Amino acid sequence: MFLKKSIAALFLSAALNAVALAAPVSLDDSIAEVAHRWARINYQTPDGEKEKAFQKLIADARQLSQTFPGKAEPMIWHAITLSSAAKVEGGLGGLSKAKEARDLLLASEKINPGALNGSIYNSLGSLYAKVPGWPIGFGDKKKAREYFDKALAINPNGIDPNYFYADLLAEQGEYARAVELLKHALSAPPRAGREDADVGRRQDIQRLLDDIKQKHGDQLAKQ
C-alpha cells in the first residue's frame, strides 16, 4: 500500500512539474526579473564586472522582446540595458548601443507612449542629455529637455524623471531648479517591486544634491 502511494505521489509530482514547465512565462514577472538584475548590476556589481554582466542582461532583454513581440515594455527595458551598458563601455561601442537604445525607444513610443509610466521619455531624455552631439553622436540638450518635460507630464512625482532632469539642469548651471527637482525626487513614493532600484537612485540623488550645495552653495543662497 505504501509503495502504491509513493508511486502515485511521484506521478503527481511529475505531472505538476510538467504543467509548471508548460505554463506561459508572465510578461510582468519577466520584466520584474530584468529590472532586479539591472539594479543589481548598476548598484552592486564592481565596475570592472559591469560590462560583462550588462552584455548578458542585454541578450536576455532582447530575447524577452522577441518572446513578446509588439509589446512596448520589454522593448523599453531592452533599451535601458543598452543605454546602461553604453555608459559603462563608452567609445564607439557605447555610441552604437546608445543609438540602438534610441531606436528601440522611438519604436516603443509608436506602440504605447505612456508605457511604464513615461519611461520612454525619461530614457530618451537621458540619452540625448549624455550622448555627444554632432558630428560624433546625436546628443541634443534642448531635445533632452523636451523629453524630460514629457516624462514629468506623465509622471510628475517619479523619482527617475525628477533626478535625471535635475542632473541636466545642474550641468547647465540651473542649480536652484535642479535642487528643487532633487528634493522632489527624494520625496517620491516608493515603487512596488523596485525597492532595490529606489535605494540606489536615492543615493544618486543625495550625492548630486550634496555636490551642488558644496560647490554652488553661495550662488543658491543668493537666489
Detailed description of the structure:
The chain folds into two domains: 11-140, Serine Threonine Protein Phosphatase 5, Tetratricopeptide repeat (Alpha Horseshoe), CATH 1.25.40; 156-223. Helices cover 82% and strands 0% of the residues. It contains ten helices and no strands. The protein has helices spanning 2-22, 27-44, 47-67, 72-89, 91-111, 115-130, 141-154, 159-171, 175-186, 195-222.
Summarize the structure in short.
This protein has 10 helices and no strands. With 223 residues, it is an all-alpha fold.
The second-level CATH architecture of the largest domain is Alpha Horseshoe
The best one-word shape is: globular
Return the structural class.
mainly alpha
What share of residues is helical? over 70%
Straight-line N-to-C gap = 85 Å
The CATH class name of the largest domain reads: Mainly Alpha
What proportion of the residues form beta strands (DSSP E)?
under 5%
Order of helices and strands: HHHHHHHHHH
- How many domains, as an integer? 2
Oligomeric state of the chains in view: single chain
Radius of gyration, whole Å:
21 Å
Number of helices: 10
How much is the average pLDDT?
91
Q: Which runs of at least 5 residues are low in confidence (pLDDT < 50)?
A: 1-6, 8-12, 18-23
Largest sheet: none
CATH topology of the largest domain: Serine Threonine Protein Phosphatase 5, Tetratricopeptide repeat
Total beta strands = 0
Write the topology of this structure.
Layout: H1 2-22, H2 27-44, H3 47-67, H4 72-89, H5 91-111, H6 115-130, H7 141-154, H8 159-171, H9 175-186, H10 195-222
Helix pairs in contact: 2-3, 2-4, 3-4, 4-5, 4-6, 5-6, 6-7, 6-8, 7-8, 8-9, 8-10, 9-10
